[in-house]
Amino acid sequence: MSTLMVKTISQENPLWVSWHDTQMMASLNPQNVMDYFCRKSNPFYDRMCNNENIRMQRLGLENLNNMVGLEYILLHVHEPILYVIRKQHRHSPTDAIPISDYYIIGGMVYKAPDLANVINSRILSTVTNLQLAFEEASNYSRYHPNKGYTWDFTSNKALSDKSKAAAKKDATSNKDESGTVFQMQRVDMLLAELLRKFPPPVPPNLHQQQLQQSGSQSNANVQDHNAAASDSNANTASSSNGTTSEASPVTALGVEIKQEMIDMKPPPEKRAKQN
């Protein structure tokens, strides 16, 4: 790949670009990694930075803090494979604004994506996968005027077997697996016992209705008892007038009273003895 083409791609999207130097990549360490990154063939290196001025003057990197402008610093080291370099613009010895980060892993130099690029990449991959899934699902959908939309996986054997297994699993899961007959009866007995010990509270309106119903029932019972008592008195009066009834009178409390039958016929006349 020519240098011009690399520069063109790096200007369009530098995340697609990588760079390495085969002569130095095997001997990288924290002391020479900045020299490795600041080589002229590296497309990520800007030769108008303060690092280049220091190299031309043969000064140390500690002099970067006293300068103003664009610079590169070693931000993070994880020997022997990972090095992170930051590009920043320095305004004062204590004020510097980060611009971009680069990481060297295994001797290969890449530009680290920023948060916007990471989010855009994740959204793009998610939308692409969803679109592929919808397109594949639409190939198995069928429409019939009477049945509506249905799935037909006969063209794909794996999906057909999977759908059959899922249907069989649903059919078996619909069975009642709540417990044995003994367990259900035991639970019912325990629930009835708890309901007897701790009855639910009766609402005030329902309690008043129950009281009214019980009062009306008691009045009806009293009326029935009075009617039964009047009937028994009538039967007693009729029997005293010479009419007997086969049934025994019943009191208002429902207790049967035994009465002796009195024979009202006159005694037989005594015949005189004949001498």
Describe the structure.
It is a single chain. The protein is of the alpha+beta class and 275 residues long. Among the domains are: 16-111, Roll (Nuclear Transport Factor 2, Chain: A); 113-162, no CATH class. It contains seven helices and seven strands. It has a five-stranded antiparallel β-sheet. A hairpin with a 3-residue loop joins strand 2 (69-78) and strand 3 (82-92). The longest helix is centred in the C-terminal third of the chain and has 37 residues, at 204-240. It is elongated and about 170 Å long. InterPro entries: Mediator_Med6 (IPR007018), Mediator_Med6_met/pln (IPR016820), Mediator_Med6_sf (IPR038566). Keywords: Activator, Nucleus, Transcription, Transcription regulation. One of its GO terms (molecular function) is transcription coregulator activity. Residues 208-218, 226-248 have a biased composition (Low complexity). It is found in: Nucleus.
Outline the secondary-structure elements.
Layout (H helix, E strand, L loop, with lengths): L2 H10 L5 E2 L13 H5 L12 H8 L11 E10 L3 E11 L2 E11 L2 E4 L3 H26 E4 L3 E4 L5 H17 L7 H17 L6 H37 L35
Antiparallel strand pairs: 1-5, 2-3, 3-4, 4-5, 6-7
